[in-house]
TrEMBL record:
<protein>
    <recommendedName>
        <fullName>Porphobilinogen deaminase, chloroplastic</fullName>
        <ecNumber>2.5.1.61</ecNumber>
    </recommendedName>
</protein>
<keyword id="KW-0808">Transferase</keyword>
<keyword id="KW-0934">Plastid</keyword>
<dbReference type="Pfam" id="PF01379">
    <property type="entry name" value="Porphobil_deam"/>
</dbReference>
<dbReference type="InterPro" id="IPR022418">
    <property type="entry name" value="Porphobilinogen_deaminase_C"/>
</dbReference>
<comment type="pathway">
    <text>Porphyrin-containing compound metabolism; chlorophyll biosynthesis.</text>
</comment>
<dbReference type="InterPro" id="IPR000860">
    <property type="entry name" value="HemC"/>
</dbReference>
<comment type="function">
    <text>Tetrapolymerization of the monopyrrole PBG into the hydroxymethylbilane pre-uroporphyrinogen in several discrete steps.</text>
</comment>
<dbReference type="InterPro" id="IPR036803">
    <property type="entry name" value="Porphobilinogen_deaminase_C_sf"/>
</dbReference>
<feature type="domain" description="Porphobilinogen deaminase C-terminal">
    <location>
        <begin position="274"/>
        <end position="345"/>
    </location>
</feature>
<dbReference type="InterPro" id="IPR022419">
    <property type="entry name" value="Porphobilin_deaminase_cofac_BS"/>
</dbReference>
<comment type="pathway">
    <text>Porphyrin-containing compound metabolism; protoporphyrin-IX biosynthesis; coproporphyrinogen-III from 5-aminolevulinate: step 2/4.</text>
</comment>
<dbReference type="Pfam" id="PF03900">
    <property type="entry name" value="Porphobil_deamC"/>
</dbReference>
<dbReference type="GO" id="GO:0004418">
    <property type="term" value="F:hydroxymethylbilane synthase activity"/>
</dbReference>
<dbReference type="GO" id="GO:0009507">
    <property type="term" value="C:chloroplast"/>
</dbReference>
<dbReference type="GO" id="GO:0006782">
    <property type="term" value="P:protoporphyrinogen IX biosynthetic process"/>
</dbReference>
<comment type="similarity">
    <text>Belongs to the HMBS family.</text>
</comment>
Length: 355
């Protein structure tokens, strides 16, 4: 398995977001003109645009996707040396033998990248949005989300077709408290144990018998072209996704106008507004890294924003859910997410927020 997506796959995704016509055109919800692309590209043509990323295969796939999007939108950036990918090792990448909650939780996969951005070592930073804390370091902005991938989780097992088929005492490997709580709420006879590492590592551990099954994000498997490992794709009702799951965010320095203009051309507004809602929900709950929280917002067939969220205890014995419908604007999305989070925090038992 290659560590990052092929150039062909990256360009396929790029072509779905940016266009190659002379006249302005709307593709994937983004209106970009060739003239504006030339203007922005010229502004950065005198220096290399450095793209910061973690070094995992999935993170690299996302960074190469970003690079190919930029090349497709801005032909000038196809010149040799115009774009460079800079790999940065984060705390979360270095410590793999402990649960994330035990080593700090929030910001474990972003802090070193944020530092590199602020110091000028990189110009833009590519993140999996579910790794990004609800606060951003002063001097940075996250103005761009790429088109969101499928948000659902998948069940993978060499012995069972579904969680319901696992026998009592079977071990499900997962480092996610959100997944743990939802699994145990429905299947209290199962055990969930910490299971960290990149996608390839977790699949190897599963095949070696470290556990009977695991759950992974479908988005990551699709970006790595590894969907052949899926046993079953879980519905949203079966497993509510993590806040911002399947979304890629790209940050830059607040005062870097050239990078901000580049990212404006890549931004997928429908994804960004949904992510705004989910992150407002998370911020209002102010849950610790030990609090299982899930939230998903999307644009429904009626054009409205639909949001579902939950908070639970790690053992799944207590769980509260909420939902909202609002107009699909940034202001309404933020208000809906914030209101949903405040509702659960005000009405939920204190035990939900003691972890």
């Amino acid at each position: 398995m290659q560590q990052c997506m092929s150039r062909t796959e990256g360009l396929r995704m790029a072509k779905s977001t940016c266009f190659r016509a002379t006249a302005p055109k709307r593709v994937a919800g983004v209106r970009v003109s060739r003239r504006s692309c030339h203007i922005v590209a010229s502004a950065v043509a005198t220096k290399t645009v450095k793209i910061g990323t973690r070094g995992s295969p999935l993170a690299l796939a996302q960074a190469y996707m970003t690079r190919d999007l930029l090349k497709t939108c801005f032909p000038e950036l196809n010149e040799e040396g115009a774009l460079e990918i800079v790999i940065i090792k984060t705390t979360g990448d270095k410590i793999l033998n402990q649960p994330l909650a035990d080593i700090g939780g929030k910001g474990l996969f972003t802090k070193e990248i944020d530092d590199a951005l602020l110091s000028g070592k990189i110009d833009i930073a590519v993140h999996s949005m579910k790794d990004v804390p609800t606060y951003l370091p002063e001097g940075t902005i996250l103005p761009c989300n790429l088109p969101r991938e499928d948000v659902r989780d998948v069940f993978i097992s060499p012995t069972a077709k579904d969680l319901s088929e696992l026998p009592a005492g079977a071990i499900v490997g997962s480092a996610s408290l959100r997944r743990q709580a939802q699994i145990l709420a429905k299947y209290p006879h199962l055990k969930v144990e910490n299971f960290r590492g990149n996608v390839q590592t977790r699949l190897r551990k599963l095949n070696e018998g470290a556990c009977s099954a695991t759950l992974l994000a479908l988005a990551g498997l699709k970006r790595l072209d590894m969907t052949e490992h899926i046993t079953k794709t879980l519905s949203i009702d079966e497993m509510l996704p993590a806040v911002s799951q399947g979304a890629i965010g790209i940050a830059c320095r607040t005062d870097d106008d050239a990078s901000r203009k580049l990212l404006a051309a890549l931004n997928h507004e429908e994804t960004r507004i949904a992510v705004v809602c989910e992150r407002a929900f998370l911020a209002a709950l102010d849950g610790s890294c030990r609090t299982p929280i899930a939230g998903y917002a999307h644009k429904g067939a009626d054009g409205q924003l639909h949001f579902s969220g939950l908070v639970a205890t790690p053992d799944g014995k207590q769980m509260m859910r909420t939902s909202r419908v609002s107009t699909f604007t940034e202001e309404s999305a933020a208000r809906a997410g914030d209101d949903a989070g405040r509702e659960l925090k005000a009405n939920g038992p204190k035990e939900l927020f003691m972890y």
